[in-house]
Amino acid sequence: MVIIVFKRKIVKNGKTYYYFYKSKRVGSKVKSIYVGRELANKTTKSKKKKISKIHKKKTKGSVKKVKKHNVKKPKYLDQLQRFDVLIDKIKEDIELDNKKMIIKEYNELYKVYAEIIDKVSDQKKIELFNKIKEVYNQIQSI
Asked: Quick one: 135 and 83 in the same domain?
């Protein structure tokens, strides 16, 4: 019988710990079973990522360094902006009585709504639904 042991690397508070696990098949699943921990004297600190750019900002008589943080903006925020822009376009087209553009933009609005509905909170879902309902009622009144 062959027993295969795997080593997992876990980083906590800047320190690296190594744990040993063995794999065992239970029914149709493979379970990892904890065997033990590696000796403590072999732990090492993990390397921290450096910030990409540093801007210098001048203040009265001194130079102050300001760090630039790379923050990713979630994709659904762009879609929320697109949603609001489409609602505004539809309202303008309702005033101009441009029915073809209204239909086209409403279909696009509904596609954007379908994409972002799973990514937002329940309160935001209700707000978005109410906006679509309001636009739909305005379109029906034409």
From this structure: yes
Burial of 98 (0-12, 13-18, 19+ CB in 10 A): middle
Query: For the segment 111-121, what is each residue's pLDDT rounded down to a tens digit?
Result: 888 888 888 88
CA proximity to 19, closest of 45, 44, 41, 39 = 39
Domain presence at residue 60: no
Within this chain, do residues 79 and 36 fall inside the same structural domain, yes or no? Answer: no
Is 51 part of a structural domain of the chain? no
Host domain of residue 9: 5-42
Which has the closest alpha carbon to 54: 64, 63, 66, 62? 66
Higher pLDDT, 53 or 111: 111
Q: Are 9 and 16 in contact (CB under 8 A)?
A: yes
Q: How many domains does the structure of the chain reveal?
A: 2
Give strand pairing partners of 9.
18
The sign of the torsion formed by the CA atoms of 81, 110, 119, 74 equals negative
CA distance 110 to 16: 48
0.70 exceeded by pTM: no
Report if residue 85 sits inside a domain. yes
